[in-house]
Structure formats: C-alpha cells, structure tokens
Amino acid sequence: MTVFNLKTTSLVAVASFLASAASAQVPLTERNVSMAMAQAIIAGAMEHCIKGGNTVAIVIVDRAGQVVASLRSDGAAPHLMEVTRMKAYTSLIRRLTTREFAQATASGDGLLLRQIPGVMALGGGVPIKIGNETIGAVGVGGAQGPGADEACANAGIEKIAAQLK
Predict the structure, then answer these.
(1) What is the distance between the alpha carbons of residues 80 and 147, in angstroms, rounded to a whole number?
(2) 112-147 pLDDT, tens per residue?
C-alpha cells in the first residue's frame, strides 16, 4: 500500500512547475501597429475618402484593441468616432473584415456573436495583417455607398503594404 503525503506531493508539484516556468522566462516579441504606420494608414484612407466626396472618421487599433490613432474629417458626424472604433475592434478580434463578419452572423447561432460588447456588424473594418498574423485593424465610417468605407480602409492599408511583408 502506497501512502502519499499531500504536503510533500504538493511541494514537489509546485517546485516542478516553478522550474519549468523559470526556464520559459524569455521576452515575448510581438509585431504591432506603430504610430507612424497608423498615421500613414489614416492619411491614405482619408485621401481616398475625400476624393470620393466623403466625410468620415477613421480609427486604427493595435493588436490589443487599443486605439493608436484616430481622425474625423470636417463635417463628419460625431458618433462616427465610436462606430469606427467598434468596426476596427471587431475586425481585429474576428480577424476578418466587418463586412465578412456581418455576412457570417446574419442568421442562426452567428447572431449571438453580435451581442459581444463593442462588436459592430457593419462594413468598414479591415484587419491589418502580416501574412496570417493580425497586428491591428482599421475602422472607417461615414463614406457613402456599399463598400465605400471598406474601400477607404483598404486604400489606407495599401499605403503601408510594403511594410507588411
């Protein structure tokens, strides 16, 4: 019959865990959206939108969903800042455009995903990716016509495409 001492067994388990955790203590390296990158995306998106005669708001979030930069053009509705932040956040956490998210959640169990706080199922959110890794997202709101917000966001990302390789 084997008798286990709970105190000794627990100490051994904790010691083993700490030894393995100590050997895994290396800095975490992540790619993220820089301020310069966010400014370039906003400039490209705003340029595209204004050429189309649109007044918009644009928000860039980093890989943690935090706002890196935002801009609202003259005459853009004040609510657009929050709407575009939600579009960027949704695109980031789902790792797809908000247009794709809206289509995927239009019915059935997918509708439940729209109840997550801060999620927006309207086109205009586009993930910023390096390969398959999502490092941030762009949200654009206020452009007129189907797909216009997303086109502006894509124009902004195109300005920094060389940095995403």
Answers:
(1) 16
(2) 999 999 999 999 999 999 999 999 999 999 999 889
Q: Which amino acid would we find at residue 129?
A: K
Q: Which pTM value belongs to this model?
A: 0.84
- Specify whether the CB–CB gap between 157 and 31 falls below 8 A: no
Half-sphere exposure of 42 (CA within 13 A, CB side): 22
Q: Which residues of 22-48 are buried (b: 16+ CB within 10 A; e: fewer)?
A: eeeeeeeeeeebeeebbbbbbbbbbeb
Instruction: Give the pairing of strands 57-62 and 67-72.
Output: antiparallel
Task: Quick: pLDDT tens for 36-86.
Answer: 999 999 999 999 999 999 999 999 999 999 999 999 999 999 999 999 999
Q: How far is the C-alpha of 164 from the C-alpha of 131, rounded, in Å?
A: 8
| 127 and 92 Cβ atoms separated by less than 8 Å | yes
CATH architecture of 35-164: 2-Layer Sandwich (3.30)
